[in-house]
Amino acid sequence: MEWKKAGQGIRFKEHPVRKNGIKPDRYFSIYFRSGGKQLEQGLGWGTEGMTVEKAKSILNELKNNQRQGIGPVTLQEKREIEQARKENERIKAEKLDKESLTFSSLFEIYLAQQKADGKKTWTREQELFKCWIQPVIGKLRLIDIAPIHFERIKSNMKASSKRENRGGLAARTIHYCLAVCRQVFNYGKKQDHYFGDNPVCKVKMPVVDNRRMRFLTHEEAQRLLDEIRVHSVLTYRITLISLHCGLRFGQIAGLMWQDLNFQNDTILIRNPKNGQTRVTFMSEAAKAMFLEMEPGKAGGFVFRNSGENDRMSQIPDSFMRAVNKLKLNDSIEDSRLKMVFHTCRHSFASWLVADGTDLFTVRELMGHKSIAMTARYSHLSPDTLRKAFNSLESARNQSKVIPICQAV
């Protein structure tokens, strides 16, 4: 293809085959001097919209910029400036979109991710959002939300709890609700949906003490086991494991036959709440119970839903029916003192402490992440400090003490 001149500083060459209308398609180029050098830069094909008039306009613009010392003096500079302009416009538009993002919109994105990640808490979080969060900040832009809005959510929830006479339940619910809001903002920052500070961090969280304080005596535990066994062997077995080995329901439901070691009388707890797989021990009663069961495949669950092969998903109703029949919750208003399945695990720890087991050992047997979690049981051994003091006193008395006057 030969170059043909189309005017001062403009030339073109024709495509051998392709047409632009009835004429051959033309590729346009401009040439000029800049900085003491002869430059030539291609503009594009006629089928892409380039014409002689456009070529002249571009050439004149570059020459004028060169004479005046402002703006791009080459086509490359012109393209880079245009690209930078479009990028700035894109960033501004994106920023505007993010600034206009409401809490409801971000919550929908967050909730979808929670579902995708298999988080079981998403239903509870959705409920809190609809009841308490959405009415206050749902329609507000993220950048317009301030700590005062979360104080309003707290006030609304406190007022509601007083009307319903819910007592101590309110603090935990409010704390959880605000924690959800905090998580949504943190998620927004992580995903670049929001760039500001998290306003929830400036809100004083309610002080929560929802730790369960109820534990059974050995007599109560045996009565409970006897009552349950009459109605459900499965419920009896999981209750015995919790009482004798201190396992949570989720840990019991996740037990596989390969986790049981009858030679060492141990149970492997996989992926527990604190994230650290550990080994605990089975009592004689627990071992005898396992041995009387028909063993399954190594990778099969020990406890399964009736008639199914899948893992247990919830505590059988027969547990609470037995609790109610024995009237273990009669006249008890404080939820922390009510008998639930988790009380079995607390009873296990309480029996250990009452029997004189030190808290560090209890911590290991319970699988607590910190000693602070185990410290709640310290009040069950009121003689511990006295025994420690008397032990030191006894050691002093057995030592020969030299009077000060003789030492001098």
Which short descriptors sum up this protein?
3-stranded antiparallel sheet; 408 residues; DNA polymerase, domain 1; 4-stranded antiparallel sheet; 50% helix; alpha+beta
Structure, explained:
This protein has 408 residues and is α+β, with helices and mostly antiparallel strands. The protein folds into 3 domains: 4-96, no CATH class; 103-202, DNA polymerase, domain 1 (Orthogonal Bundle); 218-381, hpI Integrase, Chain A (Orthogonal Bundle). It contains 16 helices and 7 strands. It has helices at 52-68, 75-99, 103-116, 122-137, 147-163, 169-190, 218-231, 233-245, 249-253, 284-292, 317-325, 342-354, 359-366, 371-374, 384-398, 404-407, and strands at 4-7, 10-20, 23-34, 37-45, 260-261, 266-269, 278-281. It has a 4-stranded antiparallel β-sheet with strand order 1-2-3-4. A hairpin with a 2-residue loop joins β1 and β2. α3 runs antiparallel to α4 (122-137). The longest helix has 25 residues, at 75-99. The radius of gyration is 38 Å and the shape is elongated. The chain starts with a strand and ends with a helix. 22% of the residues are buried. Residues 165-169 have low confidence and may be disordered.
State the low-pLDDT regions, or none: 165-169
Globular, elongated, flat, extended or rod-shaped: what is the shape?
elongated
The tally of structural domains comes to 3
Structural class: alpha+beta
Q: Could you report the average pLDDT, rounded to the nearest whole number? A: 85
Helix content: 40-55%
CATH top level label of the largest domain: Mainly Alpha
Please report the total strand number as a whole number: 7
Q: How far is it from the N-terminal to the C-terminal residue, by CA? A: 117 Å
Percent range for β-strand residues: 5-15%
- CATH-assigned homologous superfamily of the largest domain: Intergrase catalytic core
CATH architecture of the largest domain: Orthogonal Bundle
Biggest sheet architecture: 4 strands, antiparallel
Give me the oligomer status.
single chain
What is the alpha-carbon Rg in Å?
Answer: 38 Å
Order of strands across the main sheet: 1-2-3-4
CATH topology of the largest domain: hpI Integrase, Chain A
Report the order of strands and helices. EEEEHHHHHHHHHEEEHHHHHHH
Total number of helices: 16
